[in-house]
Amino acid sequence: MFTLDQIRSFVAVAEELHFGHAAERLNMTQPPLSRQIQKLEKTVGVQLIERDNRKVALTTAGKAFLADARKLLVSAEQAPLTARRIARGQAGVLRIGFTAASGFSVLGTLLSTLSEQLPDVDVDLREQVTREQVDSLINGEIDLGLARPPIDHELFESRLLLSEALELVVPEGHPLAALDRPVAGADLREVPLIMYSPTKARYFYDLAIRNVPIQHGNVVHTVSQILTMVSLVAAGRGVALVPASAQRLGVAGVTHLPLADQTTDVVELHAIWRRGQRNPALHRLLSALDGHVSST
Q: What UniProt keywords are attached to this protein's entry (predicted)?
């Protein structure tokens, strides 16, 4: 295999087309320079440079080899810098799992922070529910998850990124919108309700039944995605309990109403990562997010 010294020698001769000038450029004498070229040609298996007493010229193969040789030298010079940048978390790849709901709440802010603080870090985004994110973190398939509680703190470290209120979304012009007060559980007794799936959207299902006296006989649809839920409300199919950030979906034909006897931070979204995670880019991002918790 050829060496970088041989490549440097070849590039110098190819650019100078003069062994004496190339030797001076490399701070060496001509005999070792000639030996470097000979060893390179032997390794490559073709003549790269034609030389006689009057001139030095590249062969056709030499001209083709020169382009790749220059790229090799650039890569060799960049490699240590890239390694240092990756070690400092300034470059590399960060694989992020996110729920659909986090896509319209904190994901945009997170990506903006990455672009500003770590512009040379490539981001690999994967839409996954919390359960899938947990599996991917355990298997080393992602570096960071944007997930809902509960969190296994023996396996994962976490940071609260968003806390927000649970709201009621109703069709535009619905009688509940005319109450001029927060909606109470008693107001929902005879109202068709679009509810979360207890298996595919367990976090929001548990949250809803824990905070509002749900009349299960009123449930007309069971879905797992918030966008689907709000779209059904817009179609007049019922009302639904959604996080306040769902307003950012911009679905027309709906009104968001506050709920009575509710705190403003019942819905949580956390950044989670496996304990012992060593990706420097992850730790740079976490440092950039220090103290950043959003409330909606």
A: DNA-binding, Transcription, Transcription regulation
Preceding amide of 31 cis, omega within 30: no
The DSSP bridge partners found for residue 57 are 50
Residue 11 or residue 88, greater confidence: 11
| Contacts by 220-228, CB closer than 8 A, 24 or more apart | 220/192, 220/193, 220/194, 221/194, 221/195, 222/194, 222/195, 222/196, 222/197, 223/194, 223/195, 223/196, 223/197, 224/196, 224/197, 224/200, 225/100, 225/201, 226/100, 226/101, 227/100, 227/251
Residue 121: give the domain boundaries.
Answer: 91-162+267-295
CA distance linking residue 292 with residue 93, whole number of Å: 22
pLDDT in tens, 199-241: 999 999 999 999 898 888 999 999 999 999 999 999 999 999 9
291 pLDDT more than 60? no
Instruction: Tell whether 219 and 76 lie within a shared domain.
Output: no
This prediction's pTM: 0.67
Residue 169, phi then psi, degrees to nearest 5 = -110, 130
Q: Based on the fold, state whether residues 285 and 145 are members of the same structural domain.
A: yes
